[in-house]
Automatic annotation (TrEMBL):
UniProt source species: Dissulfurirhabdus thermomarina
Protein name (Swiss-Prot/TrEMBL): Recombination-associated protein RdgC
Highest classification ranks of the organism: Bacteria, Deltaproteobacteria, Dissulfurirhabdaceae, Dissulfurirhabdus
A Pfam family hit: RdgC
InterPro entries: RdgC (IPR007476)
GO biological process, one term: DNA recombination
Amino acid sequence: MGILSAAVGVTRYRVVDPVPGDFWSWAADRVAARAFREREPDTAERRSGWAAVAHPLEEGVTLADMAFGDYLVLALRVDERRLPAAVLKKHCLREEARVAAETGRRRLPRQHRAEIRERVRRSLLARALAVPKTADFTWHVSTGQVLFLSCQTGLREAFEDLFLRTFERRLHPVVPYLLAQELLPDVDRRRALAELRAEVLV
């Protein structure tokens, strides 16, 4: 989901750990190391990396692409290749029959069938078209606030994992309760919030 879309779903995070003094050069190096790169032929079912918000389907991210004042802005790109089980089964049976005929066997051993299955799977994946998904995020560096513009579980997990591997900083989800603690103006109201207990309304 793009940051310039008319409507977006947002997942809030916070980065608690401090960042280096030379943040932008440090971040540029780390993002470049984890930038999305297409590979041909590609047998991976899923590949992820960073891309520029302005052109998320192109490779390469420069400092100018991601630095906006005190904000680091990037797109997470995830390419997936899906292989229907029925298609894999059909091609495996065909290859097993061919190998069995060549070797004169009525039935191939389990290990041999497993090797054929993996070889066929990789061959089919190399020919399958990757479906790209992108979701933008912003990181306000001075406050540590991070907004990820997706609520999809799979994309959130991919984002959290890649963020940790890239920046070696863990993302802490900001749930409504924690947000209320920050926004309440006085001690009495924060104390009242702390005394709230969950109720099951059934």
